[in-house]
Design goal:
globular; Cytidine Deaminase, domain 2; 3-stranded antiparallel β-sheet; about 20% helix; alpha/beta; 10-stranded mixed β-sheet; single chain
Length: about 220
Amino acid sequence: MGSLFKQQISGRRDETKIILSPEIYNRLFSFMCLSSYFSYFRGEYEEFGQFIFGKKVKDWLFFYDQTTHPGNTESAGAYHCTNEDVEDTITKLMTGKYDCIASFHTHPADSESGRCFSWEDTEFYIHKTDIKKGCLFLGCMISQPVIGDWSDDEISFIRYDKKDQSFIYYPDIYVAQGAKLIPLKKQTDLMYIGKDNKPYNKITLKDNVEIDRVYTIERTTMSI
């Protein structure tokens, strides 16, 4: 929620559709479940991720392939690319069959800040903008649901625009099922900004927080 919220306020919306193959969708969903398992049943806030690859087709970005090696977690559970992941990414880009790539990872929903791209995330996306000439580089974050409410997850795709020096977000995400495109469900939520300038939703809002302003935002979930 926070990640999409930040882009709606400071970035601009792109009408391009993000299309996920069933295999990619299942991989993203499984990583979210894995992150949830570590958070809720083992008390470990681990992040998991990979690179996914695809082609720009008309006004779609169709992601249908992935890195061979699943990304591992390192210090403090934060996601970092492994050497195998980087080598596999370079190899795939050299083939020339892809013109869009996304680096995705999970965030534990231990707090509202877990729903926001971190400074390290956005810096990584900015520096990888020119990873290959003619190739779009996107960042993707999946925040796991708050325990007991599986409708509270979120998936966000963003891209850095060097010309405008701002981020673009892609809220229209679909899963390809044969000839059909199945949209991921959107939810409308209230986002409360406290006097401390931190975002809160209905779950993370605390009784002693003084509210400065309220926004109505749209959030894309992993639900079909």
